[in-house]
Amino acid sequence: MALLVAFLLSLNLLELIHRAGGVTIISPDKDVEVNEFETATLPCDYVLERDSHARLEWKRIAGEHISFVYFDGQIVEKYRERATMLGPSIVLQKVTRADTATYRCEVTAKQDSKIFAETSFKLVVLVPPATPTCKVPSSAMSGSTVELACKESEGSPPSVYTWYKDNVVLTDVSAKDSTANNVSYTLNRSAGTLRFNPVRKSNSGTYYCEAHNKVGRSERCSVKFMQINDLDVTAIVIAVVIITMVLLLFGLGLCYACRRGYLGKRRSAKSNAATRTNTAPAAEDFKHTKSFVI
User: Fold this and answer.
1) CA atoms lying within 13 Å on the CB side of residue 118
2) At a CB cut-off of 8 Å and minimum separation 6, what does 164 contact?
3) For 141-167, b where at least 16 C-beta lie within 10 A, e where not — what string?
4) Nearest to 97 by CA among 127, 67, 122
5) Could you tell me whether strands 133-135 and 193-196 are parallel, antiparallel, or unpaired per DSSP bridges?
6) Alpha helices in the chain (DSSP H)
7) Number of C-beta neighbours around residue 114 at 10 A
8) What is the DSSP string of 119-176?
9) How far apart are CA 69 and CA 78, in angstroms?
10) Angle at CA 99, nearest 5°, toward 98 and 103?
């Protein structure tokens, strides 16, 4: 039975080579997920048409940055202490979140009818989320827009967030259901935001959040209380009326003083006093001169 299975696999392999007409990578093209500090194996099995001296290269791609992992028949120095080759496949030991990237295997066989083949794998190093930091305002005015934020940066894959009010989970609400159920908040579970538009007196309470991904769930952030105060329209109207009356009375008093001449008389009195002060010494000088002539 085992021989029959092996024979059938050989036939399938020969058919695959014939159809491809050159070098062909037969490893499945799929993502590789592994927990942090464990071992990750990136497979790159391939078959050749006729060339027995194919060139193999492994590259790491992170954004726009591309670097070699395996080149010119050896592992590059950066990975030499924790990477080994298992045939054409590469084995990374003690992976960390920094190893999360796309890895590409490239095979070149110059004597085959198709001389080049490649395949890529996304390595995802799984890391549980850390305790998030949540930002909750201590108070706000009713009718305003308020946004609460929850964030952590350790989790891999990126975390999603859950908000709680008074120890009760807040569920996602669509725009239609929000209007129908008189709910004034919207959740963004990926960004970790909880937005009230508008915020209401009934939204007062204790809030906290949690982060989670496929690896696990974090501890909750510190619980914070948010107080929503109603806008006291009556007090504002009374204050405006009082200020207006004070300004009006001050203006009327100023007009009355001007009409009665109080402000003019005060200026005239000051002017007369100044005149007397300036002319008095001149009279004394005149008397002294007169007596001297006599």
Assistant:
1) 10
2) 170, 207, 208, 209, 210, 220
3) eeeeebbbbbbbeebbeebbbbbbbee
4) 127
5) unpaired
6) 2-20, 175-180, 233-260, 262-293
7) 12
8) EEEEEEEEBPPPPPEEE--SEEETTS-EEEEEE-S--BSPPEEEEEETTEEPPP--HH
9) 8
10) 145
| 128 half-sphere exposure, CB direction, 13 A CA radius | 8
The residue type found at 280 is A
Indicate the DSSP class of residue 97.
Answer: G
Task: Name residue 106's amino acid.
Answer: E
Task: Locate 177 and state its tokens.
Answer: 């259901």
Tell me which residue of 43, 10, 9, 7 sits closest to 25, measured CA to CA: 43
pLDDT tens digit sequence for 92-141: 999 999 999 999 999 999 888 889 999 999 999 999 999 999 999 999 99
Cα 248 from chain centroid (whole Å): 52
Strands 116-126 and 32-35: parallel
Instruction: Note if the pTM is more than 0.70.
Output: no
Distance (Å, whole) CA 46 – CA 93 = 23
> From the first residue on, what is the mean pLDDT of each consecutive set of 10 residues in the chain (294 residues)?
48 48 84 95 91 89 95 95 95 95 94 90 95 96 95 94 96 59 82 95 96 94 94 68 83 76 59 53 47 42
Q: Describe the crossing of helices 233-260 and 262-293 by its angle, rounded to 10 degrees.
A: 40
Place of tokens 């964030």: 151
Using an 8 Å Cβ cutoff, are 82 and 94 in contact?
A: yes
Token pair 């209380």 in the structure block, residue: 225
